[in-house]
Amino acid sequence: MKKVLLIHGPNLNLTGQREPGIYGSNTLASINAEVVQKCERLGMECTVFQSNSEGALIDRIHAAREDCDAIIMNAGAYTHYSYAIRDAIAAVRLPCVEVHMSNVHAREEFRHKSVIGPVCAGVIAGFGKHSYLLAVDAVKSIIG
Question: Which residues pair with 74 in a beta bridge?
Fold first, then answer.
């Protein structure tokens, strides 16, 4: 069975409470449950990881070399400036889909650039929790 790692970066643990007008009212736990269930329906296993720490995110990306076939990642604010996360994604050589619940291009200027996007298979943004579910479809099409 193919294995997918779903990674959430800083502040995403507050999803459902933090700025619901931007991020919606669904909790991260409910989004994770939907992603896990969709992966199972598509014949994939999904492991979920969240951290507010850049180093912990990098360590988990590195570990994915041993136990995953693909990564779905919402790096939160690290998307826009963490070259270390970008380099970790490039180093593990696993397909990665970058995800954002909000349309980052309709928000503040600093959110318009992703440093991790160029090493990802693709970027899905602006569809709320459905961005994650669309990413599952994308990963399935990549890894089979």
Answer: 8
- Phi/psi of residue 63, nearest 5 degrees: -65, -25
Q: Which of 8, 78, 100, 132 is catalytic?
A: 100
23 is catalytic: yes
Could you tell me the CA-to-CA distances from 8 to 1, 16, 72 in Å, in that order? 23, 14, 9
Cβ neighbours of residue 119 closer than 8 Å, sequence gap 6 or more = 86, 89, 90, 96
Q: Tell me the whole-structure pTM to 2 decimals.
A: 0.94
pLDDT for residue 23 is more than 80: no
Number of domains into which the chain is organized: 1
Domain that holds residue 98: 2-143
Is position 62 annotated as part of the catalytic site? no
Q: How far is the CA of 126 from the CAs of 11, 46, 86, 87, 99, in angstroms?
A: 17, 22, 21, 25, 9
Q: Does residue 130 have a known ligand-binding role?
A: no
> Residue 92 is encoded by which pair of tokens?
């593990």
Region 44-62: mean pLDDT is 98
Q: Which of 23, 62, 112, 132 is catalytic?
A: 23
Which CATH number characterizes residue 77's domain?
A: 3.40.50.9100
